[in-house]
Write a structure and sequence with these properties.
The complex is a heterodimer of chains A (about 375) and B (about 290). Chain A has about 375 residues and is an alpha+beta fold. In chain A, about 25% of the residues lie in helices and about 35% in strands. Chain A has nine helices and 20 strands. In chain A, the strands form four sheets. Chain A has a six-stranded mixed β-sheet with strand order 6-7-8-3-9-10, sandwiched between helices. Chain A has a five-stranded antiparallel β-sheet with strand order 13-12-11-14-20, with no helix packed on it. Chain A has a five-stranded antiparallel β-sheet with strand order 15-19-16-17-18. Chain A starts with a strand and ends in a 6-residue tail after the last strand. Chain B is mainly alpha-helical and about 290 residues long. Chain B has a single domain, classed as MetI-like fold (Orthogonal Bundle), CATH 1.10.3720.10. Chain B has a two-stranded antiparallel sheet. Chain B is globular and about 70 Å long. The two termini of chain B are about 25 Å apart. Classes of the chains: A alpha+beta (about 375), B mainly alpha (about 290).
Chain lengths: ~375, ~290
């Protein structure tokens, strides 16, 4: 695999606000790469820097071994799908999709073919003459994709591509995006604040906050081995417990909380974190029993059921611990039905040492 | 800001329509009918109105001399509109894209001239243009000219005066139109390999069309019938429609012919408006 896009120590400030702070990142060719972060984390700025719509204050941007840091947008082999699509409202679907090719001065016959092919690919045949305003949200989205992809970009940049669509359409378009990426074989870089979207779509993803990259990895890595509590909290639900390490042995840490029992969990791969730590356990990793604690688990914390949320295929219990913290437990619906729990009932939360992870409260930056 | 008549406020809407109707009827329709009546009457021997019905006043509009003045006026008004559009667009673009605070400052600057009477402002141009005026003094002091240039009472001075007077009427509708164009569309065009010029031609220009049309109408119509500017800055030497009409009413005391000229002017505007609707404006309302 060769490198498609590389950012080297890129810094971009908007006035006093540093939107992108010393970001270095390498994205492989053909990868579906997502940048995930809350709004204002600088993820859209990274996209604009790659597109050439913004210039970095520091650092370099390399696309396919070519330094494009100072190149204007029209000289870069990338195209962008804008957040609200930015379709030209006065042009037909055909003219919108043909725009890039016309600007490049392609021959009319070639434009006809390429646009026709692309509209078939995004399943918009027969709508060539419509204006964007006459299309549904999902159709507009597909015009935006076609308008970018028809130029055969090395890299396709997508800014919150599914944010404007309703839930059902979003799921449909997620599949569509994956399919398109396989067919055109381009690198897709997608910015989103929807963690489920990023987990489902991406080959790899980066989690961003405050202009910095917190972690880069596969969805599995980031979900199972978050490097910090910030990442853990941003991706999926997490239960957290602050404490200090009292013992380290065989890659396991014993963590003591000021008022609860001591727990034992995995140390992070980079070794035991110094000083104060936070224990993180995913809600689906916990076992909940109503009567008495069962054997076979390393840790046990008692609590009281505070709320039950029925979710279709599972039940989410909120359990109040003795230190007043609320923990969440996911129980598959089949299990929850055989042994239903009610609000106010005392329960025992249990988990094995390798299901939990101790994280430093202040991790070293990437 | 809806234009629909809501049922809950049916009575106030009808009332306001009635008051607007009365106002327009009294101050617009009645005088217009009066002028129409006069345009069909004859000129009395001593300059009064003789109520003898005749088409003669309208036949006189076909006089080549009158035709020349019509064409001149249309040409001047058309050029004024084009120059106002060309000069106004960059200004309007800036005003539409700067921050709210700067937009307010710039809007105020555009409006400030309106706080002074138009006649007074036009006199200011006389002071600038005349032989011992500001411009000539400057040119001579700088050694660029030995003798003062004959600037005042030329086509150029009339033209400058018209552009000056009507530029704000082009800028303000353009600002409104450009504000409604998302800057993302410009970025999308650049991302799709458009140069600055291509982006302007294919994106900004067509999407600003409503602003150009509104501004064009607001500039073209008043400059077609402009009177003060050609009178003060043109010295009334080369006739324009406005000066001709004024002359018929006040100097020649030929009210019927002046009235016919006024209707000719109105007819011209209506005809051009109709042609505009047929060619460009009607097309995208499909």
């Amino acid at each position: 695999m060769n490198e498609s896009v590389r950012l080297d120590g890129v810094v971009k400030a908007h006035g006093p606000v540093v939107a992108v702070d010393q970001v270095s990142l390498a994205i492989q060719s053909g990868e579906f790469f997502s940048i995930l972060g809350p709004s204002g984390s600088g993820k859209t700025t990274i996209l604009r820097l790659i597109a050439g719509l913004d210039r970095p204050d520091q650092g370099e941007i390399v696309i396919q071994q070519r330094n494009v840091t100072l190149d204007p947008p029209h000289e870069r082999p990338v195209n962008m799908v804008f957040q609200h699509y930015a379709l030209f409202p006065h042009m037909s679907v055909f003219d919108n999709v043909a725009f890039g090719l016309k600007m490049k001065g392609e021959r009319q016959s070639k434009i006809q073919n390429a646009v026709g092919h692309m509209l078939t690919l995004v399943r918009l045949q027969g709508k060539e003459k419509r204006l964007p305003g006459q299309l549904s949200g999902g159709e507009q989205q597909r015009v935006a994709l076609a308008r970018a992809l028809v130029n055969r970009p090395v890299v396709l940049l997508l800014d919150e591509p599914l944010a404007a669509l309703d839930q059902q359409l979003r799921q449909e378009m997620q599949g569509e995006l994956k399919r398109l990426q396989r067919e055109v074989k381009a690198t897709f870089i997608c910015v989103t604040h929807q963690q489920d979207e990023a987990l489902m779509l991406s080959d790899r993803l980066a989690v961003m906050q405050g202009g910095k990259l917190l972690q880069v990895g596969t969805p599995q890595e980031i979900y199972d081995q978050p490097v910090s509590t910030a990442v853990a909290k941003f991706i999926g639900l997490s239960n957290v417990l602050p404490g200090t390490i009292t013992r380290v042995e065989d890659g396991l840490c014993w963590v003591e909380h000021e008022s609860l029992a001591s727990v034992v969990v995995k140390c992070p791969p980079q070794g035991p974190p110094p000083g104060a730590v936070t224990v993180v356990i995913r809600p689906e990793r916990l076992h909940v029993s109503a009567k008495a604690p069962v054997n076979g688990y390393d840790n046990m914390l008692p609590g009281i059921v505070n709320q039950t949320i029925f979710n279709g295929n599972e039940v989410l219990y909120h359990v109040r611990l003795r230190n007043e913290a609320l923990w969440m437990v996911r129980v598959p619906i089949t299990e929850a039905q055989t042994c239903p729990l009610t609000v106010g009932q005392p329960v025992y939360l249990q988990w094995s040492a390798h299901e939990g992870l101790a994280l430093s409260a202040h991790p070293a930056p990437l | 800001m809806t234009t629909r008549f809501s049922t809950s406020s049916a009575i106030p809407v009808k009332l306001s329509l009635l008051s607007a109707g009365i106002f327009l009827g009294l101050f617009f329709l009645v005088p217009l009918l009066l002028v129409l009546a006069i345009s069909l009457a004859s000129r009395g021997t001593y300059g009064g109105i003789a109520w003898i019905a005749t088409w003669e006043n309208y036949q006189r509009l076909l006089d080549p001399l009158v035709g020349t003045i019509f064409l001149r006026s249309i040409l001047f008004a058309g050029l004024t509109t084009l120059v106002c559009a060309a000069v106004g667009f960059p200004l309007a673009y800036c005003m539409a894209r700067v921050s709210r605070k700067w937009q307010f400052i710039l809007l105020t600057l555009v409006m400030i001239p309106f706080w002074t009477n138009f006649l007074v402002r036009t006199y200011a141009w006389v002071l600038i243009f005349r032989a011992d005026g500001i411009l000539n003094t400057l040119l001579i002091k700088l050694g660029l000219q030995e003798e003062p240039l004959p600037l005042l009472f030329t086509d150029v001075s009339v033209f400058v005066g018209l552009v000056y007077g009507y530029l704000p009427f082009m800028v303000l509708p353009l600002v409104v139109a450009i504000e409604r164009i998302s800057p993302q569309l410009e970025e999308a065009a650049f991302d799709l390999y458009a140069s600055l010029g291509a982006m302007f031609r294919h994106v900004l220009l067509p999407l600003s069309k409503p602003g150009f049309i509104a501004g064009g109408v607001l500039v073209f119509i008043p400059s077609l019938g402009a009177f003060i500017t050609p009178y003060l800055l043109g010295g009334g030497q080369k006739m324009m429609l406005g000066t001709l009409i004024q002359q018929e009413f006040l100097v020649s005391r030929d009210w019927p012919f002046g009235s016919a000229l006024s209707f000719g002017l109105m007819g011209t505007v209506l005809l051009l408006w109709f042609l505009l609707g047929r060619t460009s404006y009607g097309r995208d309302s499909s």
